[in-house]
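Researcher: I'm comparing several assemblies side by side, and this is the next one on my list. It has 959 residues spread over two chains. Same procedure as the others: predict the full complex and return the structure.
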Amino acid sequence: MNRFAALLDRLGYEPRRNAKLRLLTDYFRHTSDPDRGYALAAMTGALMFKEAKPGLIRGLVEERTDPELFRMSYHYVGDLAETVALIWPAPGHESVAPASDIPAIGHNNPPPHVPTLTEVIETLATTSKSDLPARVAGWMDALDETGRWALIKLITRELRVGVSARLAKTAVAQLGQIEPDEVELVWHGLEAPYEDLFAWVEGRGPKPESGNPAPFRPSMLSHPLEDEDFAKLEASEFLAEWKWDGIRLQAASGHGSDGRPVRRIYSRTGEDVSRAFPDLVEALDFEGAIDGELLIVREGRVQTFNVLQQRLNRKAVTPKLIAEFPAHLRVYDILFEGEEDLRALPFAERRRRLEALVTRLDDPRIDLSPMVPFETWEDLAAARADPASVGAGPDADAIEGCMVKRANSPYLPGRPKGYWYKWKRDPYLVDAVMMYGQRGHGKRSSFYSDYTFGVWRDGPGGEELVPVGKAYHGFTDEELVKLDRFVRNHTVKRFGPVREVEYGKDKGLVLEVAFEGLQRSTRHKSGVAMRFPRINRIRWDKPAAEADRIETLEKILERGEQEVHPLKDQEA
Amino acid sequence: MALRSTDILTQTPQGLYCPLGDFHIDPVRPVKRALITHGHSDHARSGHQSVMATRETLRIMGVRYGEDFAGSTQEAPLRESLRVGDVTVRFTPAGHVLGSAQISIEAGGTRVVVSGDYKRAEDPTCLPYEVVPCDVFITEATFGLPVFRHPDTRGEVRKLLDSVALFPERAHIVGAYALGKAQRVMALLREEGYDQPIYLHGAMERLTELYKSEGIPLGETPKVVAAERSKLTGAIVICPPSSIQDLWSRRFPDPVTCFASGWMRVRGRARQKGVELPLVISDHSDWDDLCRTIQETGAGEVWVTHGQEDALVHWCTTHGIRARPLHMLGYGDEGEAEEAAHPPLDGEGREQGERGGVETPTSESDGANHPTSALRADPPPQGEDMP
């Protein structure tokens, strides 16, 4: 456990991808089975513990610490898991115990010993709910600060050390002379602790069978298109499609050794999400792998992301949910057809193969993402500004810009440079007034870095500000220092980690907030919630009285709703 | 009849003052007579008429400020009682840095101990802390929160050496305070068997020479020559914390940024500084040692000078010890305490009672029902990933 904890600790601080790889490979090389396999499982998100939940840790630490000391510590550290790991009063450290309660702890527990990673994982997976607290407490007693921190991360299943499943698998591949994609291909047939996988990459065993006839292949991602790029890019070498405001999916289909079809749907990171979309799985009547966007389509019209979210937010997939929010796959690429790997072909050629496949499928749940015709970048700019004018028709509202792809581009894993670009529609902008500042977390634990802002509306006593959102990014580090200073120098009230700042008609700071969309919300005083709000500009120059009014947001909201519910409008 | 503790020691704008002996301890402005606990520049300033300190502290002040740093100097031999005015003073090792001492003041049967900065952990570069039983104990609280528990320094040095072994083509740049920490890191590296030259930033040189001349073996410690920086693959280089991110350190081959400080215990702090390899090595007491030391002195009353006073005062109170924070300003300009006095905002906009980014919790609710809770929406929707 200590080796694994040290690895996580080091990875969390290491920004360089190659150095992370070196650390991972070094760990896998010098750690024996089955520990290293469980470490790999933890980093690829393959672990699931039924009874071990974050609440368990919270309960244990509350029994052991003076609440006032815990509160001060949490405020200082800014991260709950880390606070618990650091403050945990191991035997011999009574100085944080509630004063009245010093000797009562730990008497009937077995003497602490530092567990192996394997022991931790196996125990977490199998121990009953009633026995778990004592086991976890025993480990917490035996481990040091870093070990406890790692244990909490395992239990909460949020490692957050900047290692993707892909990077962990790449590190395993580097133990031998194997391409990461080959590990990816056999991955779905494997289970923790992956002893057969390690044996194979180290040349001690045969290649594991790919147990998955419908495997995930790494997605190809795009770069944002910047203004200065146009001068360097030749328009005639590119093709364009709409960028849909949905969720990227890969649909793969094959057949098992018994000849039965195997159909799977993956997120763009390779997570198998088939169970959430049985209606779509049913439609995958082909063999191969296609790439596209998950959308909700009602009466032939693509709905906005707000509507899609309502399906994603539900845990149970009922027939009613499916009928109300029918899933749709709008496809734009093909990776495999049958056993044939098409990824090396030029995009234009793959597109032809994809068009043929979709025609053959002839299923209303799967259709093609149309191409956007253009000759010059100016043409495309006009199309992007008004998708309805170039054939997007009623779906225009679900479009968030254009995808620009090099016609001869192969399908490459990851985010290769120079092939695919996304050119997003401009965000909405609103001028709002800062109302509250909150201390950030992690790297920003001592800065007031999260800002709640409001716009004007008519209140009982005249115009008043109503909060409409909260943003914590979009500014530079230098701007953060200035914003933080503004909060500190203009505080009027404090509420724990939150400070209310001065605002009014003749005082206050105006923030230009950019956001991608709006939705109605009963949880917000103003009745609206913003999607991806961020600080676009700090308007040090603008008087607060000139900030926007709530009507500006209402208008954006109404426009979206008309597009979303055309039938409703007709009925009314 | 015993005197009241405030007859022996009071607070003045210059710092702690003993009326009966007519002297200040670690004054922040020039005074007639100063008793100095240790050589860090926020405690040991130049310009006093007379200075009493340990021999090593006087030497350190001489190196930093020039030999004329005070009108006159008097060496205080360790553990010897000295009469100053109407009180008896005694210097006892504090274990903080070379020459550091606690100062006890006794009059009329009452003893007050001013600890200065101190630690209980082992340090090959200075004498260990000695407990001095007293009535009033005046303590620092730089790491006065229970999240600060300093680990065994050997493990931290091992982390550094493991990294040097794993990345032999890179240079490891270790930020460490010039007085005390830098030399302690060198000594710990030697204890772990590291026998390569340890390269020094120019700012470390004279104090390191002073340590060596006091008989502390630090091995070969060449100064970094500008022209050779880019060739120092696999080297360990020690520099002041302010240099780990500036251009100076970027000239080394693919540098790994390390920082030796108790603050490195908190991940957010390490990330703020862009540290890639934090080394939790502190010259101050951690939480457990602060609490233990207070108990071992047997003091019935504790004054907390600087740092995270509130938690320590709370602990004392819940353990039946009278305690009060002194909220002393002006300490923490050098060494680890600097973070306490200068949050990352360079100190501007700092208010009374707010140090090191931690606010005084008094009069604040716990934030559970703060006004923005009404704004807490669903988690931000993700456009491209599955939720």
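Model: For your comparison table: The radius of gyration of chain A is 27 Å.
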